[in-house]
Amino acid sequence: MSFGRRKGWSDCIKGCNARNLLDAQDFAASIGRGLNTAVDINWSRTTARDDVHGELLRAWRKAAGRFLRKHGAGGLTCTWVRERPTTATPRPNAHLNCHIPDALFDAFVRNAHRFFPRGCIACDPGAIWIQPVGTSGTYYQKRREYYLKGAHPRARLPIKRKRISQGRVLRKRSGTSEDSRATLTRHICHHFFPFFIAGSMPRLNVTFGRRDIDVVEYLESKIDVRSGDEALSSDPVDQVLEYIEKLRSHTVRDVEGEVISDISDHTPFECIVVCDLSVGARKKFQRSVAQHPTPDGLGYYGFSPNHKASIRVLSYGKVFRDAELRNQSFFSKLGLLPEEVRKALSAATQAAE
How many other C-beta atoms can be found within 10 angstroms of the C-beta atom of residue 256? Predict the structure, then answer.
C-alpha cells in the first residue's frame, strides 16, 4: 500500500530513541513503577486492519490510562514501539512494556479489548496478547531486547538480539508514556527545587538510566544562572498569555484526552507567576503587562484586557514570607510549630529574598 512521499516515514528505531527507551525503563524501575507487563497488539486481527498514523495505539493508551487512574494506579506508565513487517503477509502491530499493579492485572486483561477506540473491534482473542514479565530475570531481559529488534543495526545498544527490518512506519515509531527528559526534570525539581531555592541544597548525584547527574548543576542549567544573576530564558507573562490563547483555541486536551471546549472569549483568567526577582527579571517585568510593583516590592501585577487576564508575579521570598505570616498564629495555637521548624521557615524566607 502506498502512502505518498517518503517524508514522515522511518525504517528503523534510531539509536538515540532506542537508548531513550532503555533509560525510561530503568527510570520507571527506579521510582517503583517497573515495566512488569508485556502487551502486544496485532492490528491485522482487528476490524481496523492497520494503524497507519498511530492514532489507534494512542487512543488505546489513553483508555488504558483512564482505567488505571480510575482504579488508583496513577495512569499508564509504558514504553511502546510500532512495527509493520511485510514478510510473507503484512502484520502491523505494536509492542508495549507497561507497569500494571499485580492487584489490577486480571482486571486489566479482562478490559484490554475495551480500550480500542470506536470502530476498532478485536476479531479474535489473539488481537491482544498480555503477559507478566516481572522486573528482573531472564524473561524480563528477553522482553526488553525483543521490542528493540527493529533498532538501527549500527546503534550501540546493550542488547544481543539480532536486529532485522520491521517495516516502514509513518510518524512516531517508538516512545514512552512521558518523555524521559521531561520525566527527569519533573522528578528532580519536585524533590529538590525547594531546597535549592532556600539555599540548603547539598551536593547530590542521582542515577537516571546509565547516567549520573549532579542535581545542583542540573537545576542551575534549568534556571540559566549567568554571572550570579538569574536570567529568565523566556518571558513568563508572555508564556501564560500564550497558554490562554491555546485554551481559547480549543486545541488543548485534558488528562483524559478530551478537548477542553468550555472556555469562551469572555472567560476571565487569574494567572500567577512565581520566580526569583533578579535584576534581569525585574527589567523584563517592568516592560510587560504586569509592570505595576506591589507595595512590599516583592512582586508585580497587571491586567491584560485583550485576554481578560489578571496577572500576579510573586517572588519566592514573598511566597515563603506570606505563608509563614498567614499560618504562624494558627500553628502556634495548635502547638504544631516547634522552634526548629519556625527557625527553618525564617531561614528559608531570608535565603529566598
Answer: 10
Cβ density class 57-90: b for 16+ within 10 Å, e for less: bbbbbbbbbbbbeeeebebbbbbbbbbbbeeeee
Give CA angle at 13 (1, 121), nearest 5°.
Answer: 50
Q: Give Cβ neighbours of residue 158 (< 8 Å, ≥ 6 apart).
A: 22
Q: Which tens digits make up the pLDDT trace of 301-323?
A: 999 998 888 999 888 777 777 77
| Torsion-angle region of 7 (φ positive above 0: left; ψ -120 to 50: alpha; else: beta) | beta
Of the candidates 97, 249, 107, 113, the one whose C-alpha atom is nearest the C-alpha of residue 177 is 97
Q: Which residues of the chain are modeled with pLDDT < 70? A: 1-7, 87-90, 178-234, 254-257, 330-353
Does residue 215 contact residue 200 with C-beta atoms inside 8 Å? Answer: no
- Nearest of 174, 175, 168 to residue 6 by alpha carbon: 168
In this structure, are strands 229-230 and 225-226 parallel, antiparallel, or unpaired? Answer: antiparallel
Give the angle subtended at the CA of 257 by the CAs of 40 and 271, to the nearest 5°.
140
* Sequence-distant (≥ 6) Cβ neighbours of residue 61 within 8 angstroms: 76, 78, 80, 96, 177
Instruction: Count CA within 13 A, CB hemisphere, residue 271.
Output: 26
Cell readout for 208 is 537516571
Alpha-carbon gap, residue 164 to 220, rounded angstroms: 42
214, 202 in Cβ contact below 8 A?
no
CB of 207 within 8 A of CB of 89? no
Angle ∠(328,334,337) on CA atoms, nearest 5: 50
Beta-carbon neighbour count of residue 179 at 10 Å? Answer: 13
